């Protein structure tokens, strides 16, 4: 059953049978009024309570609610059902008000007892909502949102259609937001990676029909969906005081009469954010309230994931100079706060990629105004004293030598081209993440035509200045041409770069321009992350393709493409992984250098779209096609941007055959049996000319080409033949 039919059946089941009388219509209107009041009244109070308890959970709940609302708009969901969905999504984690902070802030794996406490929060949600007078439909939607489609959840036995329709929708948006948001134990995944995971879990954790429906949502006009959601939510919020904007977390456990540290002013904030050293602000309970970009670069942990966590030695695996882990009793921060004395110690902490980094840690207690000796928090600075220069230092050295565009004072096109090659080479060598943002001012020609070229120049300079002010030290802002700009983001994944681009987009749309009579302008953004097998050219083309999609989908938005670098759930493709794909000696057998079968959980239509991106970004030539088969000719360079004669590109013939199969699958208790889609990709790569087979680097080039194709398709090696029906 498709989602439209399913939605109609849900709506019909909820409708009153037979013709409605005036009294029934009045009762229905009263019920609808009750639901709206519940969403905007009761929901407001409970949501505020959740924010006071744990701001990250409340922020997540709000994003899930807005995501569900946009999905409902795309489905043209009946207003009553949409209201139930929005309220249930906003409050789906309200029961976590009763979960101890030690569990909510824990960075490691939860124990069985702790998992039981998390599971018990659903019953807490039921009691809280029931006591608040919430309608039963909303309560059921919240309590059932943890159910797995096949009934295999550890504590929820609902399966399939037994789970309310709105709960199945919330489960998908909940998982997507969790995957694409920074967590203290892992960085955010890209949109493509999250979509691939949803398809992988379709039929097990999620409703397969709803997964397909949700993933199709990203092809809609995002501006229209955002306008619909804004009109529905924000207008009502003005009369109900619904806390749509984030509010600062109150200081915890501060004694009566104490004064928490004041909010840093603009100059202090800019200074702290641009410091190379890590800077952290803690409250009296060592809860992190500020985490600058230097801390992000040092630890690999984003501010979103760190803020709200307790700064304990275990958070960053803090160790003494002897190499022994520091226990809670010997924590320098705890001792400094307790004694009211500054502390300066050399320790090691867990840096990005799990590598230990030696730092000089300076802890400075902060006393309450007018109350010397009463400490309300601390400032912690960490200076990297490792002997090896970091990647950021290498990038910053290059950044200092850049050639500037005379109008905007950002890097010019020639410098961008040089730096792009340097960024790609440096990040591939170190296996660190690197992202590229392409941005273009919307309808720029009309600005020049209507207000004159001076106004156009002001718009360009304002946009360039805004990007420079909102980027980190070590990032590169460049004028790519005309009104188009590029930002190279060092040590930054796809999801984080997209959030940065969206912050710039919002700020630009709120900035008035003098030469435009106080009016504002907008820009569109395309974001991508370096992924296996990339060259500077493929990275640039993929980002530009994302920018064009943002334009096509309504402008004034951010579109991200690509899966990014390998994650912990995607084993790296090295020589051991492709050894069995190499067919004897080079040039032997059928002439193939690489021949393998890949598999992905997404439907063949989506696989074809990903394949189109691979062809476009590599500027490959299509020489032969038939049903589900394509032959390409593409050139594979070494990716370093070198022009030495020995590193000339090698021309390859790539044969790709797609096949979609349906696999009979059920879980271990016999539930959710059915057919699930897998798309298989048979790949054969061979040199175009016989003389190329003697080149020493041909196997390495073929490996890179295969890695690139695998990254585009979000595929893995097929290890077993499926059962085909």
Q: Which sequence of strands runs across the widest sheet?
A: 12-13-14-15-11-16
Largest sheet: 6 strands, antiparallel
Sheet/helix structural class: alpha+beta
Q: Which percent bin holds the helix content?
A: 40-55%
Low-confidence stretches: 235-264, 568-589, 640-646, 721-725
The beta-strand count equals: 16
| Integer average pLDDT | 80
Shape: globular
Discrete helix count: 24
N-to-C span:
19 Å
β-sheet strand percentage: 15-25%
| Whole-angstrom Rg | 27 Å
Architecture overview:
By secondary structure, this protein is of the alpha+beta class. The chain has helices at 3-14, 22-53, 55-75, 79-90, 101-104, 112-131, 136-143, 165-179, 191-200, 208-216, 222-240, 266-273, 293-299, 303-306, 332-339, 391-400, 413-430, 444-451, 453-470, 494-509, 536-552, 575-578, 604-617, 698-713; strands spanning 278-283, 288-291, 343-350, 356-368, 371-384, 434-441, 476-481, 484-490, 523-529, 558-561, 594-600, 621-626, 629-636, 650-665, 674-687, 716-717. The chain has a 6-stranded antiparallel β-sheet, covered by helices on one side. Strands 2-1-5-4-3 form a 5-stranded antiparallel β-sheet. Helix 21 links the parallel strand 9 (523-529) and strand 10. The longest helix is centred in the N-terminal third of the chain and has 32 residues, at 22-53. The protein starts with a helix and ends in an 8-residue tail after the last strand. The model is unreliable at 235-264, 568-589, 640-646 and 721-725 (pLDDT under 50).
């Amino acid at each position: 059953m498709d989602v439209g039919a399913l939605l109609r059946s849900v709506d019909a089941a909820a409708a009153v049978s037979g013709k409605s009388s005036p009294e029934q219509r009045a009762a229905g209107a009263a019920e609808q009024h009750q639901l709206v009041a519940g969403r905007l009244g009761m929901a407001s109070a409970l949501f505020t309570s959740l924010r006071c308890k744990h701001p990250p959970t409340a922020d997540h709940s709000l994003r899930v609610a807005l995501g569900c609302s946009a999905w409902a708009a795309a489905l043209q969901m009946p207003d009553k059902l949409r209201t139930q969905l929005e309220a249930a999504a906003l409050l789906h984690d309200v029961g976590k008000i009763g979960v101890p902070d030690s569990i909510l802030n824990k960075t490691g794996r939860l124990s069985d007892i702790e998992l039981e406490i998390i599971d018990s929060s659903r019953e807490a949600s039921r009691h809280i909502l029931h006591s608040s007078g919430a309608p039963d439909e909303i309560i059921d939607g919240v309590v059932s949102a943890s159910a797995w489609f096949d009934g295999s959840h550890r504590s929820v036995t609902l399966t399939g259609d037994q789970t309310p329709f709105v709960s199945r929708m919330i489960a998908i948006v909940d998982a997507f937001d969790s995957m694409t948001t920074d967590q203290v134990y892992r960085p955010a995944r890209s949109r493509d990676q999250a979509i691939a995971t949803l398809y992988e879990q379709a039929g097990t954790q999620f409703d397969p029909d709803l997964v397909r429906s949700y993933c199709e949502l990203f092809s809609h006009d995002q501006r229209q969906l955002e306008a619909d959601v804004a009109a529905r939510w924000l207008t009502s919020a003005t009369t109900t005081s619904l806390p749509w904007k984030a509010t600062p977390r109150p200081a915890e456990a501060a004694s009566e009469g104490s004064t928490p540290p004041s909010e840093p002013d603009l100059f202090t904030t800019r200074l702290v954010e641009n410091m190379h050293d890590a800077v952290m602000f803690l409250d009296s309970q060592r809860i992190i309230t500020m985490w600058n970009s230097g801390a992000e670069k040092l630890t690999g942990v984003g501010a979103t994931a760190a803020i709200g966590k307790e700064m304990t030695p275990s958070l960053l695996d803090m160790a003494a100079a002897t190499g022994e882990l520091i226990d809670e009793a010997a924590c320098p921060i705890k001792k400094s706060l307790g004694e009211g004395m500054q502390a300066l110690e050399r320790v090691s902490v867990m840096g990005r990629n799990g590598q230990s980094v030696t730092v000089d840690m300076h802890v400075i207690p902060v006393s309450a105004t007018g109350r010397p000796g009463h400490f309300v928090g601390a400032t912690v600075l960490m200076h990297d004293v490792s002997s090896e220069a970091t990647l950021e230092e290498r990038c910053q050295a290059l950044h200092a030598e850049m050639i500037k565009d005379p109008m905007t004072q950002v890097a010019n096109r020639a410098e961008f081209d040089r730096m792009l090659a340097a960024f790609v080479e440096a990040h591939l060598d170190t296996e660190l993440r690197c992202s590229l943002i392409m941005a273009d001012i919307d309808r720029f020609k009309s600005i020049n035509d209507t207000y004159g070229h001076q106004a156009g120049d002001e718009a360009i300079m304002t946009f360039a200045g805004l990007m420079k002010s909102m980027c980190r030290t070590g990032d590169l802002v460049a004028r790519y041409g005309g009104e188009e700009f590029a930002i190279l983001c060092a040590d930054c994944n796809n999801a984080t770069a997209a959030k940065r681009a969206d912050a710039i987009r919002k700020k630009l749309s709120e900035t008035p321009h003098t030469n435009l009579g106080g009016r504002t302008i907008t820009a569109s953004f395309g974001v991508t992350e370096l992924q296996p097998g990339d060259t500077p050219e493929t990275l640039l083309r993929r980002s530009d393709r994302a920018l064009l999609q943002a334009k096509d989908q309504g402008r004034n938005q951010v579109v991200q493409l690509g899966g990014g670098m390998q994650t912990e759930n995607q084993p790296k493709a090295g020589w051991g992984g492709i050894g069995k794909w190499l067919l004897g000696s080079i040039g032997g057998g059928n002439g193939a250098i690489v021949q393998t079968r890949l598999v992905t959980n997404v439907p063949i239509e989506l696989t074809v779209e990903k394949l189109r991106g691979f062809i476009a970004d590599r500027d490959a030539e299509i020489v032969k096609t038939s049903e589900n088969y394509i032959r390409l000719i593409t050139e594979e360079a070494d990716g370093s941007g070198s022009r030495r004669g020995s590193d000339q590109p090698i021309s390859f013939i790539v044969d790709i055959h797609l096949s979609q199969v349906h696999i009979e699958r059920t879980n271990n208790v016999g539930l959710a049996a059915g057919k699930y889609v897998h798309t298989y990709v048979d790949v054969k790569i061979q040199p175009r000319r016989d003389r190329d087979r003697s080149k020493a680097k041909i196997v390495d080039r073929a490996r890179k080409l295969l890695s690139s194709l695998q990254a585009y398709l979000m595929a893995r090696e097929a290890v077993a033949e499926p059962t085909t029906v």
